[in-house]
């Protein structure tokens, strides 16, 4: 299996910056590894066990849950695409995330990047 650890960490960080609850616990948002990349999905939280996506809930989702799932995964897809990732829907209500954005390396202070070029002006 290909290790997408850095992609996983970048996706998790970008979603957390956008306000998604990416920590362990009862949020229902799940981020995982697949051979092709990172997958993100949302499952309703079962209050009995505090974990997202129990089999019972997954088998018989009422229509409102499907609407919530569509809204959450749609928002996740928008955030990740705007961050430069390739995002594709899978057949299992998951988003497959690949090809993360190139992380810019910051130039040291006082370098040419800090200087702003000002064009000459000719007053005629």
Describe the structure concisely.
The protein is 31% helix and 19% strand. With 124 residues, the protein is α+β, with helices and mostly antiparallel strands. A 4-stranded antiparallel β-sheet has the order 1-2-6-5, covered by helices on one side.
Structural write-up:
- The protein has 124 residues and is an alpha+beta fold.
- 31% of the residues lie in helices and 19% in strands.
- The strands form two sheets. The chain has a four-stranded antiparallel beta sheet with strand order 1-2-6-5, with helices on one face. It has a two-stranded antiparallel ribbon with strand order 3-4.
- The N and C termini lie far apart (68 Å).
Tag the structure with descriptive keywords:
124 residues, two-stranded antiparallel ribbon, globular, single chain, 4-stranded antiparallel sheet, alpha+beta
Secondary-structure topology with pairs:
Elements (H helix, E strand, L loop, with lengths): L4 H13 L11 E6 L2 E6 L2 E2 L4 E2 L2 H5 L3 H20 L3 E4 L5 E4 L26
Antiparallel strand pairs: 1-2, 2-6, 3-4, 5-6
Shape: globular
Amino- and carboxy-terminal Cα gap: 68 Å
What's the count of strands? 6
State the secondary-structure class.
alpha+beta
Rg, Cα atoms, Å: 20 Å
- Report the total helices: 3
Contiguous uncertain segments of 5+ residues? 50-57
Oligomer: single chain
Main beta sheet: strand number and arrangement? 4 strands, antiparallel
What is the averaged pLDDT score? 76
